[in-house]
Amino acid sequence: MPTETLRQTRTAVMGVLNVTPDSFSDGGRFPDPEAAAAAALRMAAEGASWIDVGGESSRPGAAPVSADVERGRVLPVLERLSGRLEIPLSIDTTKPEVARAALAMGASIVNDVTGFTNPAMRDLAAETNAVAVVMHMQGAPASMQTAPSYGDVVSEILEFLAAQTAALESAGVSRDKIYVDPGIGFGKTLAHNLAILSRIDTFAALGFPVVAGPSRKAFIGALTGRPVEDRLAGTLGAVAWMAAKGVSVVRVHDVREAVDCLKVFEALREEAAS
Ligand code: HH2
After folding, report:
1. Is the CB–ligand 1 distance for residue 18 below 6 Å?
2. Which of 74, 97, 108, 244 has the most other CB atoms within 10 Å of its CB?
C-alpha cells in the first residue's frame, strides 16, 4: 500500500462490554455486575481507550427491552466502575432515559445505533455536553437483515450521517463532540459491508472522527466460514485494514489482540513513513 494513503494519527480501541443475556457474541457472559466491572477494568489495562457498555442487544432479530430493564443491567456496572476507570465510558443505547441515567452515573459518551434520530437524544447530548457517536442503521434490529437495499450504500450512509450530524449541531452539540459510524452489519448484506469497508476512508470527509465495529460480525463469518466464537483472526484483518484507512476508533470485543495488532501496524506505518 502506498505510504501516502496511510493515516497519520493512531487508531484507538473501544472495548465492548455487553451486559445482556442475548448479545450475538458475548451475551450472558456477565450476569453479575461485579464480573462486568472487572471485565471493563481488564480491557482498560489491556490498552482500551474507551469502554462501551450496552444493556440491549441490537443483533439481527433481537427483541427490544424496556428502559427499566436496560437501566437495571447497565447502572450497577457503571456504579461499580465509578472512580475506578481512567478512560471514558460510553452508553450504547437508543433510549434518552437510559442515556441520561448512565451519564449521571459517570458515562460521558452516548453511542446511539439509531443515529440520534430521536430529537430527545439530540437535546440530551446538547444539555449534558456528552460526546455523541452517530451510527447508521437501515431499518430496526428485528427486521434489518431481511432485505437490506440501497442505491449506492456509501453515498446513502454519507447522506444520513451528514443530516444527523447537522441535526446534532442545530440542537447545540459542538462539532468536536461528534463521531460518525457507518454501522457495519446494521441492515447491510455482505456486499454492502465490503463496499463500506473498502471505502471507509470516505466517511472522514464528513469532518468527524470515524468509529467502526467489525468485531466478530456475520460478514467475517461469511468470508472465513467461521462461527461467531472463532472470528478473532478475521476481526483483526478488518482492524488492520481500518487503521490503514484512517479509522479513529475500532469497536472490538478482543481488546488485547486488537491493541497488539495496532501496535505492529503502527510501528510499520511509522517505519514506512520515516
Ligand atoms: N455494533 C453493535 C452494537 N453497537 N455501536 C457502534 N457505534 N458501532 C457498531 O458497529 C456497533 C454498535 C453490535 O455488536 P455487539 O454489541 O457485539 O452485539 P449486540 O448488539 O448483540 O449486543
Report:
1. yes
2. 74
Query: Which residues, 6 or more positions from 197, have their beta carbon under 8 angstroms from its beta carbon?
Result: 184, 212, 214, 238, 241, 242
Among the ranges given (28-37, 101-110, 125-134), the one the predictor scored with the smallest mean pLDDT: 28-37
For the cut 50, the answer to whether the pLDDT of residue 222 exceeds it is yes
The CATH fold of domain 10-273: TIM Barrel (3.20.20)
CA 259 to each of CA 12, 43, 263: distance values in angstroms, whole numbers, following the listed order: 8, 10, 6
Instruction: State in Å: Cα 58 to ligand 1 middle.
Output: 6
Spell out a b/e string for 213-250, using b for 16 or more CB atoms within 10 Å of the CB, else e.
bbbbbbbbbeeeeeeeeebbebbbbbbbbbbbbbbbbb
Q: What is the dihedral of CA 265, 266, 268, 269, to 10 degrees?
A: 110
Its pTM stands at 0.95
Bridge partner list, 181: 135
Pocket test of ligand 1: the residue of 17, 43, 91, 92 to mutate, having most ligand atoms within 8 Å of its CB, is 92
pLDDT above 70 covers what percent of the chain?
A: 97
Mean local confidence (pLDDT), 160-178: 98
Q: Cα–Cα distance between 54 and 14 in angstroms, integer?
A: 13
The answer to whether the CB of 193 is under 6 A from ligand 1 is no
Q: For the chain, give every domain's residue range.
A: 10-273
Which pLDDT score is estimated for 120? 98
Name the closest-CA residue to atom 1, ligand 1: 213
